[in-house]
Design a protein that fits this description.
Blueprint: E1 5-6, H1 18-29, H2 42-56, E2 62-66, H3 68-80, E3 86-91, H4 95-103, E4 107-112, H5 121-127, E5 132-138, H6 150-163, E6 166-170, E7 192-197, H7 199-202, E8 210-214, H8 219-230, H9 238-247, H10 253-270, E9 284-288, H11 296-305, E10 308-309, E11 311-312, E12 322-326, H12 331-345
Helix pairs in contact: 1-9, 2-9, 3-4, 3-8, 10-12
Length: about 350
């Protein structure tokens, strides 16, 4: 495709801030190029623990630096899920959840959040069985851009406690909240495993840096994940760990403001011709296909013929009724994409 409008890729269109790049270069030139400790570099671990103590009030946070949040998810599922364990996943969902659960022999229990993508609390409560091992929560969410409210998180904590289930909270997009605070289930439920990352917030997706963290009730989970990392990933990239210690205190408010504006461009440009719930975070919109399209796959094929790259919703869902937009793109491309989608709405 020649110069396509690319609404497909889920990564920021801004680059790593200069100070963080400089820290990585210094680490490389200082010969910090060997394996780190399996659990992570001491300076980065101390920075993360300090952040967790401040944010959640945890006294003794347990932390494992991982090769991206994806690496953390794999280690978590390998640690927690035995064959036939049930994992509750809201639908739509980040594509990796389903396949990792299947890979380790667990059973996905999907709970629909259509049509408005709010946390489906009644559905989650009804889905709990004696086999429920894990509930996954992703806020801000990929692919919908939903941000769950404080009262929703409190109710989810009550449901999880009643089931004696663990909660895995994927918070990789927590920096990108546009309309208010971004509550975490970890504020209300002690048996929460946090998975957070640096790639989306600081434009360093290729550096493959994330971390898993818990408070005392799940200390053993982090210990077992660390053992598995020793025999799989070994460690996260060492020079970038040194740089990430500087990233934690880097102010990206300007980028968040820019992405709020991009969100508004997409919503205002499409809301009158598509069924579209306004995203509150991350940098995605999950849009219902127009009535003329038989499936999301068919609609996406038509969009590609118009030089627009989008993702069919069936990748993220047990339904195939929507498509995902990533508005992590330059403003001029967003305007072009809106024009193409408005034409496509008419068939």
């Amino acid at each position: 495709m020649k110069d396509p409008v690319n609404f497909s890729i889920g990564q920021p269109d801004f680059d790593v801030p200069h100070d963080i790049k400089a820290a990585a270069i210094r680490a490389i030139e200082a010969n910090c190029n060997q394996y780190s400790q399996t659990v992570g570099e001491t300076s980065l671990l101390e920075s993360i623990r300090s952040s967790l103590k401040s944010r959640y009030g945890w006294q003794e946070p347990r932390v494992l630096v991982t090769s991206g949040v994806s690496g953390g998810l794999l280690l978590a599922f390998l640690t927690l899920i035995d064959p036939d364990d049930e994992v509750i996943i809201t639908d739509p969902y980040f594509v990796m959840y389903k396949h990792l659960v299947n890979m380790v022999g667990g059973r996905c229990v999907f709970v629909s959040s259509y049509p408005d993508f709010r946390l489906p609390l009644r559905g989650i409560a009804n889905a709990v069985t004696p086999k429920t091992k894990l509930i996954i929560v992703n806020s801000p969410a990929n692919p919908t851009g939903a941000v769950y409210h404080e009262d929703e998180m409190r109710q989810l904590a009550d449901i999880a406690a009643g089931a004696d289930a663990l909660v895995l909270s994927d918070e990789i997009y927590d920096a990108f909240c546009y309309d208010g605070p971004c509550p975490s289930i970890a504020d209300y439920y002690p048996k929460t495993l946090l998975c957070k990352g640096f790639g989306k917030s600081y434009g360093m997706t290729g550096w493959r840096l994330g971390y898993a963290a818990s408070n005392e009730p799940l200390a053993d989970v982090i210990e077992q994940m660390t053992k598995l990392q020793q025999y799989t990933f070994v460690c996260a990239p060492t020079p970038f760990q040194h740089a990430a210690a500087a990233a934690i205190n880097c102010d990206i408010t300007g980028h968040v403001d820019e992405y709020r504006s991009k969100r508004d461009m997409i919503y205002d440009g499409l809301n009158d011709v598509y069924d579209l719930t306004k995203p509150q975070g991350a940098f995605y919109a999950f849009v219902r296909i127009p009535t003329w399209a038989a499936s999301a796959a068919q609609f996406v094929e038509k969009a590609i013929s118009e030089n627009l790259l989008i993702i069919p919703g069936g990748v993220f869902s047990e339904q195939d009724t929507h498509f995902r937009i990533s508005y992590a793109a330059p403003d001029d491309k967003i305007k072009q994409g809106i024009e193409i989608l408005r034409r496509l709405a008419r068939g």
